[in-house]
């Protein structure tokens, strides 16, 4: 019976020692896994994986910006052309009057030549 009690006590002591070693090992692994250099490594890996996609998005956005700038310039140019056309209505009225005068003069010349 003494041997059985001793074996049980030794077994409990062994379990306690194993649990302590296991807990210390777990704590050490946790500290190592969360060490700043490991965090920096993980950050570097994340940047390395996501950077090409970000660069592609940036080049796409720059291309779209260039295309948008070209379209904006075209629209602004068209708007200024329309504004200048509305401002030139006075000139078109003058041209219309001059053409009417020219037509009347042509008719007068034709009539006077027809009489001769």
How would you characterize the overall build of this protein?
The structure is a single chain. By secondary structure, this protein is mainly alpha-helical. It has a domain at 11-88. Helices cover 96% and strands 0% of the residues. The protein has three helices and no strands. It has helices at 2-33, 36-87, 89-115. It is rod-shaped. The mean pLDDT is 85.
Mean pLDDT comes to 85
Provide the β-strand percentage band: under 5%
> Which structural category fits the helices and strands?
mainly alpha
Model regions low in confidence, pLDDT < 50 over at least 5 residues: none
Sum up the overall morphology in one term: rod-shaped
Reading the helices and strands in chain order gives HHH
Q: Major sheet, described briefly?
A: none
Q: Name the helicity range.
A: over 70%
Specify the number of helices: 3
Q: Count of DSSP E strands?
A: 0
The Rg value, from CA coordinates, equals 47 Å
Distance between the termini: 159 Å
InterPro entries: BORCS8
Subcellular location: Lysosome membrane
Family: Belongs to the BORCS8 family.
Pfam families: BORCS8
Keywords:
mainly alpha; rod-shaped; BLOC-1-related complex subunit 8; BORCS8; 116 residues; membrane; lysosome; single chain
């Amino acid at each position: 019976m003494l041997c059985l009690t001793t074996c049980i006590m030794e077994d409990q002591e062994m379990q306690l020692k194993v649990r302590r070693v296991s807990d210390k090992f777990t704590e050490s692994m946790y500290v190592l896994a969360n060490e700043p250099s490991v965090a920096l490594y993980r950050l570097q890996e994340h940047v390395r994986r996501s950077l090409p996609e970000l660069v592609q998005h940036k080049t796409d956005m720059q291309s779209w910006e260039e295309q948008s700038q070209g379209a904006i310039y075209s629209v602004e140019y068209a708007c200024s052309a329309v504004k200048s056309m509305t401002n030139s209505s006075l000139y078109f009225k003058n041209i219309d009057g001059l053409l009417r005068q020219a037509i009347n003069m042509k008719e007068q010349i034709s009539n006077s030549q027809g009489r001769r």
